[in-house]
Amino acid sequence: MTKILVIGAGGVGSVAVHKMAMMPEVFSHITLASRRISSCEQIARQVEQKFSAKIEVAEVNADDLEQTIRLLDLVKPSLVVNLALPYQDLIIMEACLKVGVHYLDTANYEPRDEAKFQYSWQWEYHDRFKEAGLLALLGSGFDPGVTNVFTAWAKKYHFDQINTLDILDCNGGDHGHPFATNFNPEINIREITAPARFWENGDWQERPALSDKQSFDFPEVGARNMYLMYHEELESLVHHLPEIQRARFWMTFGDSYLKHLEVLQNVGMTSIEPVKYDGHEIIPLQFLKAVLPNPGDLGEITKGKTCIGNIISGVKDGRPKNLYIYNICNHEQAFSEVGSQAVSYTTGVPAMIGSALILKKEWQGAGVFNIEQMNPDPFMKMLNQNGLPWIEKELDGPLSF
């Protein structure tokens, strides 16, 4: 009997639990926990109605180490799947070490009081997990996650050497709102407004946020403007594949979204610095999150597709090679299957896949690992089997920008 504990009952947590319930031979006992138990109960009802699968629920404040340890002691899971906020990664990792449980997440740690995310905080746990004989798998979402595995797959089967890597993330969906984010608004806006960074010739280069724009014709979506950003998988990929000479991350944004974001920045609503209001201290960005549409409610009204993938250039058998590996995900099909839009779906499904491979012991190890360090073959196979099929195309040349 395999027990799994999922912490986080947002859109990604909902997708992951739905997909786990479809595989009772792997996930025989699922507990879903969150700060708001009502959110867990709602997801559990939806899953039980669709699949007649029993989902246990629990309440936990994952900012509280002792409370998190007590929950792990009570559930006694084989694996904790952390789909909570990235601020809570280190606490949940500490709890796993205290109780002796494997760990998986989809996003790397960042402190609440600084808009900065990097893997060094979690990589420092490597020796402790190794000594405990436990596996901590980082970044089993889509980006990071699938994009890392795409890179590992390309290196294994298509390239003797990778020279350049461009990760292109396009959400071609339309939800009808003038301004809304497709995942947690606080995390999303912190990420977008941070300076853009990319790796080139052995060092990090930095640009002002949203200052580098290119147009790209995305398969099944069409031409979209995409902007250079910093994203966490760049850090781990250039660390584990030091041959990469240049690595960049691009994300699409519509003009309406950027216009609203600029205004909100100009009036201070994206700030994470506390301000006094009516005798209380508030964080403007957290207040903004409270008044924006809930990403979990967007699934029913979002139409269109996402297209996320990697363009990789390098050398195979002494000849230049250029490859595009990508996935297309349909918002309406995702909602029909699991009640969530494609952005949650493309993160929740890989979280399930990584969890399944750990529980089936196809992925093993002691220490802290990023997903590209694992054998890509079973993960790529399960993507095709579980709603995220991938496509490979050889290109005539590398990106021209």
Task: Kindly describe this structure.
- The chain is of the alpha/beta class and 401 residues long.
- Helix content is 36%, strand content 27%.
- The protein has 14 helices and 18 strands.
- It has helices at 11-21, 37-51, 65-75, 89-99, 120-123, 126-132, 146-157, 185-193, 232-240, 255-266, 284-291, 331-338, 342-359, 376-385; strands at residues 3-7, 29-34, 55-59, 79-82, 102-105, 135-138, 161-171, 196-200, 203-207, 213-218, 222-229, 246-252, 275-277, 280-282, 305-316, 319-330, 367-370, 390-394.
- Strands 7, 8, 9, 10, 11, 12, 15, 16 and 18 form a 9-stranded mixed beta sheet that branches. A 7-stranded parallel beta sheet has the order 3-2-1-4-5-6-17, sandwiched between helices.
- Helix 1 runs parallel beside helix 2 (37-51), helix 3 (65-75) packs across helix 4 and helix 7 packs across helix 14 (376-385).
- The longest helix is centred in the last third of the chain and has 18 residues, at 342-359.
